[in-house]
Amino acid sequence: MSGLVLKLAPKERVLVNGAVIENGDRRSRLSIVTPDAHILRLRDAIHPEQANTPVRRVCYSAQLVLSGDIDPEEDRLPMLRRIEELSQVFTDPDSRAALSEATEAVISNNHYRCLKALRALLPREERLMAVRSQ
Predict the structure, then answer these.
(1) Which residue of 15, 25, 102, 129 has the fewest C-beta atoms within 10 A of its own C-beta?
(2) Can you tell me whether residue 116 is helix, strand or coil?
(3) Tens digit of each residue's pLDDT (9 = 90 or more) over 79-121
(4) Into how many domains does the chain fold?
């Protein structure tokens, strides 16, 4: 069986095709076998007002594709441009690898993998922003 496997903590919520689903009192595991299902863990969700930095904005865009609010084809080129802009700032090898993975994920229409790769940059961006504000 292929597809996405979600391991959910007790009471964890997930958005599946626009419906919020809450896990019960025990840990559970769900296999999503529908290839084009829109899935987003709500614990990972970035709210619109939190999309206030360059990396968070790209993460938010990927999240909107995952939730089904944006057409992936329509957002492909703008997202690739934003990832390219990030590569002008994040020049270390680990960041480059994450950005490369995010780019490949967008091209292959795997926005969950894109979001995961971009989220790895959030702590680095936070450190850069802290240094800049000093």
Answers:
(1) 25
(2) helix
(3) 999 999 999 999 999 999 999 999 999 999 888 899 999 999 9
(4) 2
